[in-house]
# Entry
Amino acid sequence: MRDTRHGAARRLVSTLGIALAASLAAAFAPVAATARAAPQDAAGAGQPAHAPRQRLLLDDGWRFHRGDPDGNSGPYLYDVRPEVTVSADGKVADAMPEEAARVARAGTPVLKAWILPSGNAFIRDPARRHARPALDPAVDAPYARAGFDDSGWRAVTLPHDWAIEGPFLTTGPYGGMGRLQTWGPAWYRRKLDIAASDRGRKVFLDVDGAMAYASVWVNGHLAGGWPYGYNSFRIDLTPWLQPGGTNQLAIRLDNPPESARWYPGAGLYRNVWLTKTAPLHVGLWGVTVTTPEVTPDAARVAWQVALDNDGSVPASATVTTELYVLDEHGRIAGKAVATTQSGPATVAAGASVIVAGATTVVRPRLWGPPPTQKPQRYALVATVRQDGRVVDRYETPFGIRTVRFDPDRGVVVNGEHIPLRGVNNHHDLGALGAAFNMRAAERQLEIMRAMGANALRMSHNPPDPQLLDLADRMGFLVMDEVFDSWQRKKTPLDFHLIFPDWHEQDLRAMIRRDRNHPSIILWSVGNEVGEQYTGEIGAAVGRELVAIAHEEDATRPATGAMNYAKADMPLPGTVDVISLNYQGTGIRTLPGQFPMFRAAYPDKVILHSESASALSSRGEYQFPVPGVLSAAVRPGAGGDPATRQVSAYELFAADFGASADRAFASLDQNPYTAGEFVWTGFDYLGEPTPYYEARSSYSGIVDLAGFPKDRYYLYQSRWRADLPMVHVLPHWTWPGRAGQVTPVHVFTSGDEAELFVNGKSQGRQKKAPYAYRLRWDFVTWEPGEIRVVAYKDGKEWARETVRTAGAPAALQAQADRTTLSADGRDLAFVTVRIVDGAGIPAPRARDRVRFTVEGPAELVATDNGDATSFESFQAPERAAFNGLVLAIVRTRAGAGGTITVRASGAGLRGTAVTMHSKLPASKAGTPEFQPRIISQM
Ligand code: GAL
# Structure
């Protein structure tokens, strides 16, 4: 079987499929036909199998090992890599990207030729697709063999990030990548029991993300792979599997050093699935749903279903679609609200045909961002019949909404202008590393939502697909981004190495995977790429990528984030929406560029894809406080090189950035702008500007542990203007500062406030135009309390009191939720606060806190949000940072009961918090968390 397949040239079949209009309330659009890259499947010869699709979660049962046999990676290299002679660590983020190094590869055997065909489905021009070499590579890979004894390897469950365990690399040029070793080869092995009844079916491995340069081996044979660590991909295992027995799957990863400006994570860090289908089946991400006409009375829902025929005989297929309302958990609710039935379409062997249709939903329940709208969704269920028998069923959640980009106002969703109040986030989940966890991501979005955020930029790579499900469910607007570099490099071994071979596949793959998410409003084809600097040559690359985005999705605009390209340069002309990083406010001495872009592009929406890059360490206040509104961090002015902490007065920023206040003013002074995506919502691992000796960033509005910094309330005061709130800083526990000037700053959604120190008024202040904080810069510290009373329209609006704390005396614990799911994935985030004898938070306490867990759960991580901490994230004990420490506890699968988390510390009154872990009502799990798991293998 293998020889036939490998020996024969690819047979690419172009077939015109036909779909007929024959439906209930439906009219069918013309049908497209494509040539498919997938070869005929010898295993599928003969009669098609009749079993419908199965999607099996493959997260259990893996064995893991770091390194190659005998430490020799030579035989497994995807391609020759340039030698890294100069580290990029610590380079300022907006440094000009450099030209790629040229590498001589003559004579070195590499695996690229066997990996490239895995991307063929995403190469539009059949002539440019890659034929698999006739023979297997000349590699005898012991770790891929079925007979290899892996019992000494570590047993792991996915998602798995092996790098988060450290140890931290406390010296050397590793700050940018988080001071954790993410590079070097690693292998994962798993047995696959494939039933004899699977003979004749297609079996695919679907990987949501693998970091990086994955090669997939089946029973010792290299089946394919995917280099880019952030994209999801599919490998057809069918030709190498032996149904009726145990098969051996092995995945090798090989993340390069110096491959990122932040912590990329490592390993099989997202879900992995086994998908089994009949030879005739819906293709990968093969259903596209659009809503070309939407009014309050009716919405037109158009769909396209790509049918792949991997069998050896032509198939005659019909597609039935049913539309259902989804409830808030993503479950189908009630009966179908619309049904359509296609006429027969013929799909030749080895070909793919798109069947298209449309239907009408009466009085549609629209999807839109809260608080003014509701994120309501539908699902389209496509049922494929071959000769009358059901051969596939495929569910696609989607939303009905209109999004208009209005150059004079910004983004208009369902007729309502929605200012973008967005944040950028990298993909790591703090102490959990890059291993995706739905609850950890949900907690992040809940924290953002409570601040008033309504938008997310996936900087700078395709996220875990579940994060987009979450954004759909919670109603965030999303900018989905594919690359941080194109041909020119930012770090020596970043994506630029494979851009020439893979940009088309990676961009098309992201869009095909993600285009049904109602949350996505905009595609970004790149971030601050080096091609901004290369005039027309760079613009040509931008034009190509934007054209691909348009081909894959005609319903959304495409953009690219620009920190250097100016209004009179070629690159901005290639994008539909002008996305500026920092230069809208102004970079260093460069004045704000919004007006220049507005003048040059009056017909394009302009937004701030990165704003602020303000820096701070939670609870660290440094004196004296300069009387500035915004300044770059400098020693003694915002930053302390000795402690590597940045002042929390929230006035300081990266050299090219600005305080939140200054960024707000630049938007308000240019009211046509669509809004902003702040750099960043959360601190992330790596890129610890300005102190590259640290492990994690300082730019988060919220620290790495998920504890809000003061800045959180500045954003809340603007983004939730109707919420009565006031926040005062700093804390008021300053033994040793008696009589010294200790400025007090206040963030409020009111317009005025009065400050009292021990009952004495320090005066009442009103917000000036384009000012967003109230400040009393000459307050003298004395122990006691500060009280602030905020007013709106002359009436009291909110108040807050902060008191001087005594010595740390006790611990207080709080869990984010009291009821958890006993699914082995759900998490509790337990915050422990150190307080004095009277229960007043001790804002500078750094006492060590130890956690123990009783009941059906385990402690998986601890953190304190201190960017300079090199304590292991897995340690059960760690020092508090400015009064707070976090424990993350995971439930045990299948074991319900009471979970008790105890916290103790020397000389402190200990505490405990209890939660209940509940067995899921049905074995299928929570639909929202695993929307389409049929069973677990
Ligand atoms: C930007 C860049 C981001 C990040 C940020 C740091 O220039 O796009 O990825 O590096 O600066 O402030």
